[in-house]
C-alpha cells in the first residue's frame, strides 16, 4: 500500500481552500441584503463598504493562505518533472495565486462595482489584469507539459479551466447586467477549482519524475 508523505497530505489544502472560497460567496451573500449573485460580481462581497465585508474578507483570507500553501508545495513536487513547460506552468500558477491573495487583500474594491478610486483602479485594472494574464499563460504551459508527460487528464482539465476563464471574460463583457455575475464566476471559479485539482494531483504524487525503463 502506498504511503503518503506530509507534503502530499498538505496538498489537499487546495480542496479546503476551494471550500472556503465557496463559503465566502454563500455566507457573504447571506450577509449582504438584496445581493443578487446572478447579476453582481463576487468581488462586491469584499468591497470595503459592503455589509458582508467582515465575514467575506475573513473567509477569503483563509482561502488565500490555503491556496498559496497548496501552490508552494506543488512547486516543490513539480521539480521532479522532466517537462520544463509543466514546471513553468505550475510556477506561474503559484505566482498568480500569491498575487491574487496578497494583492486583493491589500487593495479590495472601495465600493461595489467600480467607483473610480485609486484603490478600485488598482484592484480592477492592475491586479485583475495581472491575475488573468498569469492564469492564461500558466494554464497553457501546464496543458502542454501535461500532454507531453502523458498526463492527459491534467492537460484536459487545464484546457477546460482556460475555456471557462475565457468564457467568463467574454461573457461578462457582453451579456446583460442581469446575468453578469454568472459569467464573472466562470472566470473566478475556474482558477479556484483548478487549484484544488492540482492539489489532488500533488496528493497522488502525479508530478513524480517518470521512472526510466530498465
What's the gist of this structure?
Helices cover 69% and strands 0% of the residues. It has 214 residues and is mainly α.
Task: Tell me the overall shape.
Answer: globular
Helix fraction, binned, reads: 55-70%
Report the β-strand fraction as a percent range: under 5%
Low-confidence parts: 210-214
Q: For the report, how would you describe the main beta sheet? A: none
Write down the overall mean pLDDT: 89
Q: Provide the succession of SSEs.
A: HHHHHHH
Please give the count of helices.
7
**Between the first and last Cα atoms, what is the distance in angstroms?**
23 Å
Helix-strand makeup class:
mainly alpha
Number of domains: 1
Descriptors for this entry?
0% strand, 214 residues, 7 helices
Structure commentary:
The protein has 214 residues and is mostly helical. It has one domain (6-203). Helix content is 69%, strand content 0%. The chain has helices at residues 6-10, 13-30, 53-77, 84-106, 118-148, 152-172, 180-203. Helix 2 runs antiparallel to helix 7 (180-203) and helix 6 runs antiparallel to helix 7 (180-203). The longest helix has 31 residues, at 118-148. The model is unreliable at 210-214 (pLDDT under 50).
Protein topology:
Layout: H1 6-10, H2 13-30, H3 53-77, H4 84-106, H5 118-148, H6 152-172, H7 180-203
Amino acid at each position: 500500500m502506498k504511503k503518503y508523505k506530509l507534503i502530499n497530505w498538505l496538498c489537499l489544502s487546495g480542496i479546503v481552500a476551494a471550500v472556503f472560497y465557496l463559503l465566502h460567496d454563500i455566507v457573504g451573500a447571506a450577509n449582504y441584503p438584496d445581493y443578487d449573485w446572478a447579476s453582481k460580481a463576487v468581488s462586491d462581497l469584499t468591497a470595503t463598504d459592503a455589509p458582508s465585508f467582515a465575514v467575506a474578507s475573513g473567509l477569503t483570507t483563509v482561502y488565500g493562505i490555503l491556496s498559496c500553501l497548496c501552490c508552494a508545495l506543488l512547486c516543490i513536487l513539480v521539480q521532479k518533472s522532466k517537462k520544463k513547460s509543466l514546471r513553468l506552468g505550475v510556477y506561474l500558477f503559484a505566482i498568480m495565486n500569491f498575487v491574487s491573495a496578497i494583492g486583493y487583500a491589500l487593495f479590495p474594491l472601495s465600493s461595489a462595482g467600480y467607483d473610480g478610486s485609486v484603490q478600485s483602479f488598482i484592484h480592477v485594472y492592475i491586479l485583475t489584469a495581472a491575475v488573468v494574464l498569469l492564469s492564461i499563460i500558466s494554464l497553457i504551459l501546464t496543458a502542454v507539459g501535461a500532454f507531453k508527460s502523458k498526463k492527459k487528464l491534467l492537460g484536459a482539465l487545464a484546457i477546460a479551466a482556460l475555456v471557462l476563464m475565457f468564457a467568463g471574460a467574454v461573457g461578462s463583457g457582453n451579456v446583460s447586467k442581469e446575468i453578469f455575475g454568472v459569467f464573472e464566476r466562470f472566470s473566478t471559479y475556474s482558477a479556484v477549482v483548478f487549484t484544488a485539482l492540482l492539489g489532488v494531483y500533488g496528493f497522488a504524487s502525479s508530478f513524480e519524475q517518470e521512472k526510466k525503463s530498465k
